[in-house]
Request: fold
Amino acid sequence: MFPLIAENLVVEFNGKHILGPLDLTVNKGDISLILGPNGSGKTTLLKSLHGIMKLKRGSIKWSCSDKSSMQKQMFVFQTPIMLRRSVLENLTYPLLLRKVSNSKVHRLATEWAEKIGLKEIMQLSATRLSGGEKQKLALARALITEPEMLFLDEPSASLDGKTTVEIENLLKSCTKNGTTIMMSTHDIGQAKRLAKNILFLNKGILESNQLAETFFLEPKSPNAEKFIAGEILE
Amino acid sequence: MNDIWYGILQACQLIYTLDQDLIEISVRSLQVTLSALVISSLFALPLAAVLAVKRFKFRRFIIALLNALMGLPPVVVGLIVYILLSRSGPFGALDLLYTTAAMVIAQIVIITPLITSIAHQSLRELWSEYHDLLISMNTSHIQRIKTLLWDARRALLTASLAGFGRAIGEVGAIMIVGGNIDNATRVLTTAIALETSKGDFALALALGFVLILIAIALNLATHWLSKTEREGRW
Ligand SMILES: Nc1ncnc2c1ncn2[C@@H]1O[C@H](COP(=O)(O)OP(=O)(O)OP(=O)(O)O)[C@@H](O)[C@H]1O
Ligand SMILES: [Mg+2]
Reply:
């Protein structure tokens, strides 16, 4: 289904310009991190690429049908959305949609419950989990379908160091299996740890799109340079 | 004053001895209202879900119509159903007037807008919570509706209970279409109206106690439902 090609992407809300115009190609195996200040359009970009945002202009094309590409991509939202069901039922919900056989559902559920450390509370209502537990569950719920493309919107925004490392390890192990990742973050350290590519967004403009090594050494945009240095962009 | 005390005493005796008439009327009441409730819910709950999930042409119109129907006085509903079912009416050939079937029909007309409306309220709330997730997971309309109906099941049951409460206590419409015929279409409310007008307070009060018991049971059930909702059980 790769590459994903976005051309001349523009998003507006009620006539207000939010994102673009922007061109972008995502190749198989990419691990791209989107950096940028609050309100720069990271969430909007991710949702647009995922195909759940109304575009003002431009196009997003996978090299397979929209229908089959939708089945192979997953999105983890900035604030985790939990179904009002148990942890177990949340975890297996996408499998249910795909009509996976019971025995496989059972096997995968046990496996992933173990991986995210929620095995003891599988029957608890997911809405009662802590923020970090919800985020881990949302990630596991996405990964359980073995997506080819994974979008993550600040998956570790409000998490402590330990949980962040757990999530990063899960992500690393799934990239080994060939999952392509596009995620936004505020955490420059996280970008350094994970990214192959860095996209730097500011006020809806993609100011730089570089390999991670070069981005941190010689960023193309002055704003990116300030951002890396920890200065506040106006 | 003495008459009333005597009536209450007699009423208690009727209940205690499980008086034949009392039992028959109570059972018929429950039969009619439960039938109306089941049929109405089968129609109202999916309709509410469709209204919450799908954006279609007549959606606003249907919602407005439901609200209008909800404000319709039951007596008027009775009158309309009477006209439709009467000998010269369009459904006269079915010969349903003065049967429990006619009463079920009238009650369905009265409670369907109510149940749909209350159910729609909670489903819409749940849909705004789930919207992004279910869109992102590329669910079909049917899958969305099923998910919403299942996850809102307690709220939907509460909506149905409200419909039950409205139907079991209603007197005007079923008096008109049922005719309050002894051993055939006499139910709790119509019997109370008749016995009171005859001055037979004993049976009227006993029937009244049964109605109050049903109302209390309904309240307890609704309360219990909202409690399990909060605690996230079943
Ligand atoms: N539904 C909407 N209607 C109007 N404006 C919106 C809507 N959604 C987002 N915006 C605006 O679009 C801009 C970009 O928002 P977006 O959520 O993409 O930023 P972000 O980079 O993800 O920010 P953060 O780091 O705070 O998550 C913001 O100014 C926001 O106010
Ligand atoms: Mg965001």
